[in-house]
Amino acid sequence: MRKSRQRDAILDYIKCSTEHPTADMVYESVKQSIPNISLGTVYRNLNQLVDEGFITVVETSDKKVHYEGNLNEHIHLLCKECCNITDVFRKTEVPDVYEETGFKIQSQKTVYYGICKKCLNT
Amino acid sequence: MRKSRQRDAILDYIKCSTEHPTADMVYESVKQSIPNISLGTVYRNLNQLVDEGFITVVETSDKKVHYEGNLNEHIHLLCKECCNITDVFRKTEVPDVYEETGFKIQSQKTVYYGICKKCLNT
DNA sequence: AGTAATAACAGTAATCATTACTACTTATAA
DNA sequence: TTATAAGTAGTAATGATTACTGTTATTACT
Question: Which residue's CA lies closest to nucleotide C8 at its C1' atom?
Fold first, then answer.
């Protein structure tokens, strides 16, 4: 991967952001320092940064991919009403989440990402 | 929610499926018993069934929503190569997953779904 | 430093999963 | 049994993402 001003700006913004920006939010923000950056460039670099493991993605029900720069293991609180994503870094036990954040848990989901048996043997 | 032959067939298919079908897979399958069912009907009912809590969704990187009828708490193994989703129901500890399933875990994600503080007070 | 090779870019067109819309049909409550 | 409104089929529209094309910029090698 070569060095590029555009990708540096994109990565920088995501790494510093506390929210979980979408491609469009990245585009709007980076446009302030690189006015003629292309939306296609943003998408291409986001995909590249995910592939290379510099950032990760979070899916919500708003049908847009959200990006995240904090790679430390943590839990996401995902509001079904407003789609807001909140990070919880402390090893807070489930019953304590409500007291500490005011977030009412209704369900949970745990996903392990990796390579399945079949793809490992290919 | 009224009774409808289309929705019954859709729910039935998802509840019986061991894979995690997409809207299109549901459409193709239900079409065998209701040949003139509309894809729009499938989407509308899937959203309704999710809203009413009869089924849930699983997101992969293939940009399609996958549906799931098994509401028992379990873990998903999501292959980054082929996007296959495998369910793990036993409380298998992370180190044991590989031995039991051949799935090589690279990262994990835990999400709690619910209502945030702000939306609760509205 | 000069240059060739090619990764990356801007701008725009295309894709495709999902949603919205419309006129018709059917479940169900009174 | 009939009114009403939820549900449907079929199709058009939307919108996030990707693909494409001609140009620019990085980097490895003389």
Answer: A4
Q: Beta carbon of B38 within 7 Å of strand D?
A: yes
* Chain A residues touching residue B57 (CB < 8 angstroms): 61
Phi-psi region of A102 (alpha: psi -120 to 50; beta: other; left: phi over 0): left
**Mapping DSSP to helix (H, G, I), strand (E, B) and coil, where does residue A73 land?**
coil
Instruction: List, for residues B58-95, the tens digit of each pLDDT value.
Output: 998 899 999 999 999 999 999 988 889 999 997 767 77
Q: How far apart are CA B50 and CA B90, in angstroms?
A: 25
